[in-house]
Amino acid sequence: MKKHILVCCLLSFCCSFLSAQQIGEWQVYPSYYEATQNIAVGNMVYSLYNGNLISYDTDDSEVHAYDCLHELNGAHISHMAYSNEAKRLILVYDDGNIDLLDEDNAVTNLSSLRDKTLSGKDVKQVTVEGTTAYLITEFGFVEVDMKNGVFGNTYQLDLAINAIAISPNQVFLGTSSGLYICSRTENMQQKSNWKQHNKVTWHDIVWHDNHLLGLTWGTIYDINLAGGYDKRVSEGGTQLMKTSGDYLFWVNNSSISFCTSLSDVTTIPHDNVWRDVSYAKQIFWVSEGENGLVGYKIDGKSFVRVAGPIQPNSPKHDLFYRMRWVGDRLLVAGGINTADAFVNPVTAMYYEDGEWTYLQEMEIPEQYPQFNFSNTTHLVQDPADDKHHFASLYRTGLCEYVDGKFVRFFNCDNSPLQTILPDEPRGLYYNYVGCSGLQYDNDGNLWILNTGTDTIVRFIRPNGRWGSLYYSDITKAILCDDYLIHSSGLMFLNSRYKENRGFFCFDTRGTLDNVRDDRHRLRSTIVNQDGTSYAPGEFYCMTEDLDGRIWCGTDQGLFVINDAESFFDDNFNFEQVKIPRNDGSGLADYLLNGVSVSCVAVDGANRKWVGTLANGIYLISADGTEMIHHFMADNSPLLDDNVLCIAVHPTTGVVMIGCEKGLCSYASEATEAAQTLDYDNVVVFPNPVKSDYTGPIAVRGLTMDSEVKILSSSGQLIWSGTSAGGTFTWNGCNSKGRRVASGIYHIVANNAEGKKAIVARVVVIK
User: What is the Cα–Cα distance from 725 to 653, expressed in whole angstroms?
Assistant: First the structure.
């Protein structure tokens, strides 16, 4: 049985913890912000937040969190249901994977549906009757025997099924073309045995108190199975119909109705945001979206809160488009900088000292009634004030925050930012203000990309005055992602795709008010050192390493600019790193040729963490010639193989990885090197090394490429090696691979020049 983790432990990883995190260890950071579904079972309430599961013990108020590193076998649960007879919870993930969770938190995994090559297998609803779960799909429905943990029959009926309900004698299907009924004694796999009762579009159906209730276009009807008129139960506007225990609930914007019998209905006026409701021990457990999980009791004609809101501190959403470390604060912008962005909620937040802080978002301004407030592309922190932030929105402008509170909004009506549709006839021009790429330079100027307009390069000076630089090369570029401010002072940006795409460099020569003396060049074609030419469809990223080289990601592979200044030369070539085959042929292959490289981050040892779309994440050596790791979802805890962003903490070595399914981290052995070798800055951990510890022993605070020797108390050489950036690791074994005996071991470190040495000690208890 896998270990159950307390949510307070799961979500309280501060930087001091990260610095002591075991090297090679993974961690995930699920979102528990928006409560969408819950099931009350005895003294436990199971609740889904953003597709992630917790349980709440009503007896002692203990909260447990579940994640894919410990108990579960997936991320992002789309549906859950409970069988009282099997005493199991069924969890259906959005990829079709299934877990059955027992009361003692043991998990049985059923992966056949996920692995099956079958169109229309996405699960739309789960209904449990007895020990059988019925999974509604686009092709029909599937049975799961929750008691024995196996799949039952599959029913391919060629019906657009929305819901299923089961009575003692019949099975009902609510479809887009009507209600279908089949006797439970008939062969339900034979479509001819399903009789069409009516032609109404039923969005949901439930069996309650010997009645079949159906929801269609916001109204609930008591369906007359004898063929007469259906009886209206609710007026229009019903958003939720649900059974829990002996109760039937239905909910609209202004009231909650519930009953055990349709002849005795209680309706309570209530302005609500109820997304789901369960009933147990006289408490109504309600999923209230962004308000979390809340427990209510009835007092007269009103609901009174008696528990909650239960909403563990966590990321606001599982959206991680851009991340960056500023000291020990991780800034996160969630969304995606493409046309699909409008479906993503605003997500601007940061992580520090074990807590997630959400920046307060503005209300939709009155002058913009149809304002599409969604999708954060970038978040930056003022280098002169750690309480001052800016966040860009994909299509609506720039938000300013002070002390976490929204203070100002910039768009095409009140700033030089332009809209790409100034003459939009419906007056929605303000929803087409492309904004991204936020970056501060060393002078405190905030650089902004105003995508899709004639003047894309814009900036705000420290005094608040706006400026812009017009370059015809990238005018009207459809989508510009990021700036790279190179250590040489040159400015780079990537124009992602379509018109005027490519890597663009400009040199202001230190005169922001005079564009006439600027140098600038767009390269839409990549030619490598061998003369091989590429015309990428997408130009994803540019990252400078510790040697000043720029690593460039495209949909056709990874390329390097060795000398930033040479980018303007007519005979300039990119480099593609070559990996020798070592098969006697003398041939070599280009590194990651043809792989879509979405992001690159550099760690303290100048190694490159390369994120890809569909191929996970690669760790390569400083020069790119050695592949150190290749993590994918099927060989590691990486949440999925589509990696959007990576941020490496320089002093802890922890690699934060933003995937399409959320955030995870890996504790690497490389950290930022110290400038000088100083005994007071060197840390050995763990120390002492106890008998039950099997991980690496780390020495941090070293200079780049320090030579390290491990000596026994008698002076015998046990192990030696070179630091990765500022960290050296030892596996606690001798040169023969055997665990060393208990004792005190000396750690002798010399800087790369051999001009200074320090001695530290570590105690090993075998």
Answer: 10
